[in-house]
Amino acid sequence: MGNLLYLMIIPFLLFLTTTHAKSNPHCPPSSCDNIINITSPFRLNTDPKHCGYSHYELSCENNLTVLHIDPVKYFVQSINYANYTIRVVDSNVDRNNCSTFPSPTYFRRYKYFTKIIAILKCENPVVNSSDYIDTAPCNIGGSLASQYSETKTTTAADLYYYYVVDGGFKVSDLAIGCRTELRTFVSNQIVVNGRTTSYVDIHNHLAYGFELSWLNSDGGLCFINDSNERQCCK
Q: Among residues 34, 32, 33, 36, which one has the least CA distance to residue 45?
């Protein structure tokens, strides 16, 4: 009976060890630059393997906290464990260069509660519409042409006019000769209205970044619960 009890207890103890490994008190918070409290579910790539989760691994590069979502690199601006959000900025966005623009990406392990904006490429100028925010004098066309567009030369890109509209803009409402070139994210704070918003405002918000939530976002049958621990349903 004693041996049987021993055999029953050992797997149970192993289960508890595995279950609580991610909240192990021997995993003190990590830090990198201004991100000073990196804890579960996140981990730095230099942390012990039992700390945090590999799906939420960050790195410290040139004293900047970095989140890699292939093929895009994001700079982490803040982590809010109270509301389960991480604010990131696309590394392609230069605050001092309004021609820079973020990359399109897909956040498989995160939910996003942000505003979507769209960049339109138009054959003719759009006038008398506050829905269309002119990107001039920033060279958005050249930036998009060199990185994402079917048109690979800035010379060809100069033949078009580029505008920003709210991502909820209906395709049926597009001006004749306009098409969507790219969609991307900005913080919910921004109001996309040409009467009160300039493209410089838009770019400043791109440089501020946007929030992603990791709560219940791991996909499949597993998720991160409200205690920042991984749970899986069989």
A: 32
